[in-house]
Amino acid sequence: MTIPAHAMGEMIDRIDGPDKVRGLARYAFEQPVERPAYLYPVQATIARGRMVGLDCRFASSEPGVLAVLHRYNAVRTRAQDGLGELDILQSDRVAFRNQFVAGVIAETSEIARHAAGLVRVEYQSEPHDVAFSADRDDLWTPSTVLSKFPMEVDKGDVDAGLADAPVRLDRTYTTPRYYHNAMEPHTTVACWADDQFTIYTSSQGVHAARGSIAALFGLDPRQIRVISPNIGGAFGSKAHVNPELILALLAARLVPGRPVKLALTRQQAFFQAGYRPETIQRIAIGAQEDGHIVAMFHACTSPTSQVQEYAEHCTRATPTMYATPNLRTQQRLASLDIPTPTIMRAPGECPGMFALESAMDELAVECGIDPIELRMRNEPETHPGTGLPFSSRNLIACLREGAERFGWDERDPTPRSRNEDGWLVGTGVAASTYHALQVPGSVATIRAEPPGRYTVLIAAADLGTGTWTALTQVAADALGVGVSDVELRIGDTAYPQAVVAGGSAGIASWGTAICEAAGQLRQRLGRGGTIPVEGLEVTAQMPENPYADQYSMHSFGAQFAEVRVNAETGEVRVPRLLGVFAAGRIVNPKTARSQLLGGMTMGMSMALHEDGVLDARFGSVVNQDLATYHISSNADVGAVEVRWLPEDDPYVNPMGTKGIGELGIVGAAAAVANAVYHATGVRIRDLPITLDKLMTW
Amino acid sequence: MRPFRYERADDVAGAVALLARAPQGAFLGGGTNLVDLMRLDVARPDVLVDVRRLTSDQVEELPDGGVRIGAAVPNSDLAANTMIRTRYPMLSAALLAGASGQLRNLATSGGNLLQRTRCVYFQNVTTACNKRQPGSGCSAIEGHHRDLAILGSSPACVATHPSDMAVAMVALDAVVQTHGPNGERSIPLAQLHRLPGQEPEHDTVLEHGELITAIDLPPMPPNVRSRYRKVRDRASYAFALVSVAAVLDISEGMIRDVRIALGGVAHKPWRATVAERSLIGGPASGERFRHAAEEELADAQPLPGNAFKVPLARNTIVRTLLDLAGSSLVPPGTAGPGPANPGATRPEATNPEAAHQETAGPGAADPEGVHPEAANPEAARPAPDPAVMDPEMDPGADPEGPRG
């Protein structure tokens, strides 16, 4: 089923690279438009209540102000069920602090920003509730299933299994709120003219955005064109339509013919562009003395807003990982007066595997077994949750390869056994996994022109990750031609429909549609392959994967970390990370390495730095910029080595790929936390691992 | 951000006169902090008087062997200046420990001293803050205050001063030269910044319209050793949780002079005079260092979220002094100063570069790399084979084969 690789596997430079480094690649906000107007939002200063007064006179009378947008002049929209976050400027309700309550449209961004400060809003506030805990009596079981995986799993008798086990572990792990903080802010340029919306926006999926907009504004999708050629990072925050896009569209309707430009400030992106919610996870494991797991329970509680449901599916990977006769997972939600969380790189697996892989390290300590050996002893033959065989699974091979490269054999397992000039040194390991999915709904068109030029059209997205290059390589191999014979066009609803870049399913989904179209084209061209003078065009939809229900499909990996912890100050530094992955065929080793390296770095950042601090009195996060919300920066990143194993998986898709956008972050935080335990003897179960938790008091 | 007028003057006196006529106006230096605050509507000047071309951007030697730093000297130039690097390596280290390369290129020496606190409530106009809006209350005391003060705070304000440079300069006994509506004056840097008291809106003792024109550093005595140690969760681009600037002069095991300033702990760079008095004239020992640090911190009033800073400051003071004392240390349990060993005293002392290098612990990396060997956390270990680090350079080990 897998197509032969010629271009695939080549370390080709980014096709979009030269334009980007020369500043020629235009992002959404930079699109040249005639007579732009600028929008600046006004945000609620209460966490819950009603707007009872609005005074726009001062703002309106500022020279250069075109209009003040508010709920009395905004067009009526119809938010779909379950998408209340988009229901903005439609009522007097305030559902969370910093919600958009108005906006100013002006001739310059400076005037808009200044005048926004002159809009007076009066509120009647109500007591708000942002107290997140796993002990609330109003927790509920989420209904939304993000993927085909069940929200909860119950197999065997976990309680009995735990009760009978000679070794028992029952631990609680917590992770704080995380923000995507893509380099490019959320931006939109929207124009309403002749009953048509033309929208440039930074989006992971232009068709999905168009669908949401059409439903919300009651328009025919043909009245809407969404264009998103270049994206400066997204990490999930640009997968769904966000309130800021809707605000820009409402503004565009108020000044027909004028393109309205909106770029969120870094501070605003902390409130209106989604985030990964905090989690409280309980893991109970029962095992034999030799480490064999007999029962496992994993429960996750996370918060969502009052207007929309989002569950951080932390327990999703748990049924994939280790053999056990008794397994139960549980997800609970607390509805609070907060903005709606959203998907962020490896939603679910990322915090979930921090907890599970920390617990596995704790179990290894309890049993006195090497943590790699423990994982080998619990390697399942078939998927522990579904019973299906794996299409391919190379976790053990990754652990072995990593152990050899990292020098794991030389490790003295005793905690706090290495002190180098006042720095405690330790190493840790954790497993990675992510599901390998194809999402139905993508269509590709290929136009062939003599003597051998091929234009491939599909509204896919390149988030800065390398789609442009990798998908061109896929198309070249599918057509049996060279990369230079193929021109790929993406990021525009004028091209055939494509699914959102998410779930690490982009290449698998779009690539399969391209392979299908290429196959049909080659068939119609026949054996000689001569392209007719008038050219030939074929359009094909992604076919269903015949193996989808026969195999369980996942990527795996092993993450290793070395940390140094200052014995007196508790400062943690990470001189060395190693990730070894098995993710099917790697289309472009250059962009793949960057993806995995970026994921690992983001996981280290999660382990040590990132922490959205909620101030319950205000109902919002108060460290709302990159000076106070810390992410790992260059000096924090030591040597990061990225490896992958050859893996030939004939079942996943015609390319044999599994997706690598999220795999790198999964398990990285646990590897760091486990290394910190090894260095210091202190087990940190609440992230981030800041120095106050490790210093000498 | 509000509309404002932009003005330039021909000279310092002109700029001072311009601002004296504009009670809501402000001087514009590098703008790295002020312009951010204007965007956030925290600073609301109606006039900006640009002073970047008015004061010196040079470091000059003074007749007494000290130096005069023009207020317009960019932080990056000051850090790289040969006189600063050789005579005051601690100052260079402190500068490089602060901000990013881009910010240091713009930020001026005078402006660095006058940057505002990074307290999250001060920077958010929708929350109460006595420093931003006198009388509105302090949101930090019962809120997020991990980065804030443990010493010298008041019920009105627990803000910290964010500068690294100022902490080193306070330990160097710097003196600030100003030109104001009432003429010129000299202010010891340790007295420039105030404690918050009931008027946290005033960061310094400067009058409105008073411009810093230069900063003078007195000469460093020969054979003293100095160090700036900055402690933070993140290896770069983060404000100090605690920093220690220390100058130590030991002769035959006895402390002749010691100067210690702390950053990240108070509304001002905190000169640790209690610890200094406790140490001067006595032997250099770990026990005495610890005792002195504890005495200095005895009056600390930490909040629940920053209680860790008290032991962190103690640990960092002690470690910094221990590292500076090096072989001059009196062994534990020894009552007296111990046998003097003048032949072996501080070979590094004649080489200020060595003292500077000490400032970089593992991971305390300086990405700008004045001292690449110190900035490289790999330096302490065998360097990994680069071919193993990078699949692009090691095709044999890459199963997918970069060449197919």
UniProtKB/TrEMBL annotation, chain A:
SMART domains: Ald_Xan_dh_C (SM01008). InterPro entries: Ald_Oxase/Xan_DH_a/b, Ald_Oxase/Xan_DH_a/b_sf, Ald_Oxase/xanthine_DH-like, AldOxase/xan_DH_MoCoBD1, AldOxase/xan_DH_MoCoBD2, AldOxase/xan_DH_Mopterin-bd_sf. Keywords: Molybdenum, Oxidoreductase. The keyword Oxidoreductase applies. SUPFAM superfamilies: CO dehydrogenase molybdoprotein N-domain-like (SSF54665), Molybdenum cofactor-binding domain (SSF56003). The keyword Oxidoreductase applies. Residues 22-127 form the Aldehyde oxidase/xanthine dehydrogenase a/b hammerhead domain. Pfam families: Ald_Xan_dh_C, MoCoBD_1, MoCoBD_2. This is Xanthine dehydrogenase family protein molybdopterin-binding subunit. It comes from Rugosimonospora acidiphila.
From TrEMBL, chain B:
It comes from Rugosimonospora acidiphila. The lineage of its organism: Bacteria, Bacillati, Actinomycetota, Actinomycetes, Micromonosporales. Residues 1-222 form the FAD-binding PCMH-type domain. Residues 331-347, 372-382 have a biased composition (Low complexity). Gene3D superfamilies: 3.30.465.10, CO dehydrogenase flavoprotein, C-terminal domain, Uridine Diphospho-n-acetylenolpyruvylglucosamine Reductase, domain 2. Residues 329-404 are annotated as: Disordered. This is Xanthine dehydrogenase family protein subunit M. Pfam families: CO_deh_flav_C, FAD_binding_5. Keywords: Oxidoreductase.
